[in-house]
Amino acid sequence: MAIAKAERLMNLALCLLGTRRPLSKRELRGSIEAYLEAGSDDSFNRMFERDKDDLRELGLVIETVENLDGDTGYLARRDSNRLPPITLDAEEAAALGLAAKVWQQARLAGAASGALQKLRAAGMPEAEDAYEVHSALEPRIPVHEAAFEPLMLACRDRRPVTFDYRKANSARSEQRQVEPWTLECWRGHWYLAGWDRERGAERVFRLSRITGKVRSRAGAFSTEVPDVVTVRETVESWAGETATRTARIRLRAGAGYPLRSRATAVRDRGDGWDELEIPYGHGLDAWLVEFGPDVVVDEPADLRADVVDRLRAVAKD
């Protein structure tokens, strides 16, 4: 359905850009196959008005012209829809080149590479790429979750979605109805921030815990999307980056280097274990579970209980 709509919008845009005179609704309906298949005049009119609004929202300048007979016509003049020349300096070109490399392992790789080639063909300066010389350093944002692409599109188009989600301390998945705001990457994991309709509150979902397909739903958002900075702060807090307490854990010697890098204090116990003090925020329990038997939580008691619950849920699976 999404592909059919995109094709219909593209055909309408080409018709409006390619004409030298305003085209009436009747002419446009006879030129676009999807409009010919509309069941009735009312159905076509609703479809055309939605498409026209969508194109204008995407930035296409569509003029409405009334001829001498009183009929209304539409066209999109090329001079009104022509972008100014793109000029980039060497530093801006380097930033774009680095961004394209970051997405090489994601599904956006083709789009990023194609956009870069078009910019270079238009005269974008070639920038020296430090990552070509020092190939040991490679920027990457891995995206392996099947939910990433449909959620990215839903965030862009402001479409509600439903999906099955399994919490870390639960053995079963449950359906969630979400108004998606944005996708953020923290510690190598992707998170979706949005409004959970059933709970009536903002929530953050880790993509690796989404099971099954992400399905789009009709209708508009029921809440206003917060500022992107506010959403990032929410994801940061939910992913455990905002610490409010300190946890004391035991870590097997030679293991858990990511944990060691966050520790404020490390003490060798002399029994093959080290004692660490870790800043404690939301989400630390889920992170500690990833280290399995190499980690034991001593304090606080509620963190220890959360980790045990998560491990039991994993064992049930």
How is this fold's topology laid out?
Blueprint: H1 2-18, E1 23-24, H2 25-31, H3 33-36, H4 41-57, E2 63-66, E3 72-75, H5 90-102, H6 109-121, H7 130-133, H8 148-157, E4 161-165, E5 174-186, E6 189-196, E7 201-206, E8 210-216, H9 228-238, E9 243-252, H10 257-262, E10 265-268, E11 273-281, H11 284-289, E12 295-299, H12 301-316
Helix pairs in contact: 1-4, 5-6
Shape: elongated
Computed CA radius of gyration, to the nearest angstrom: 26 Å
**In what order do the strands lie side by side in the largest sheet?**
7-6-5-4-8
Question: How many helices in DSSP terms?
Answer: 12
Sequence of secondary-structure elements: HEHHHEEHHHHEEEEEHEHEEHEH
Low-confidence stretches: none
**Class computed from helices, strands and strand pairing:** alpha+beta
Strand content: 15-25%
The major sheet is characterized as: 5 strands, antiparallel
Helix content range: 25-40%
Q: What is the terminal-to-terminal distance?
A: 36 Å
The counted number of beta strands is: 12
